Amino acid sequence: MLLLPALSSISTRREMHPLMRRLAMQFHVVALDWAGFGTGPRPDMRWTPAALSAFLAHALQAFGVRPYGVVAAGHAATYLLHHAAHHPGFADRLILVAPTWRGPLPTMMGGDRPFFAKLRRLIELPVLGPSLYRLNVSPFVVRRMVSGHVYSDPAWLAGERLRDKRKVMDAAGARFGSVAFVTGGLDRAASRAEILDLAGRAGAPILVVYGTETPRRSLAEMEALGRLPGVETARLARGKLALHEEFPDDVVAAMLPFLTAATRPSPAN
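-> structure tokens emitted (269 positions)
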């Protein structure tokens, strides 16, 4: 099993560890950090969807073994669908946990805006960029983000958990991947129709897991995915966009029947 964390200012493979510990009782499980994200220093470069897709393809090749299943959270789900559509049947099961395809700013504004690209360029600048980035990940902004659409219980991210997330946000070069994600610069698809098309060509059964408390706009996209032939859904009684961190027992309970079911036909391409 391969576990792909979300793309966000606070995401690393460590967010997948609660799922990993539970799945490891039945599967050999690997989690990886996306290029441009994680806790370590990151190169000062402009990250693009093509670069992250190339990274995923390289990682899968480097593993040298075909994964039985892949679990992708948040924005990683779109990259998984994109890869699957171009390599149908590369895995037996695909699980999308609270899948998203638009960055936070495009989601809030209802689409891309020329200002988003300008903001990316500003935050990439050597002197001004780090100052602007620190405003974006200030304690006030992080609290608003967490309580608004990430965790059901805003107090969940506190103490050691919060200190770990601060290391992610404060890592050298973190601003490049972060601003690309927030402004839509890492959106692998441009529309709901494109996402549905990718899912329809994935060549493997898909399970979408999401929580009832998912923000309204993101919820509509997840429900649209769930209406496709060959896609199963598990709607949990609680959980927002980071339900895999906050409620791993619920998420794994929803996943296991899908992972252990007898082989079923793949959806038509």
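Residues 49-63 form the longest helix (15 residues).
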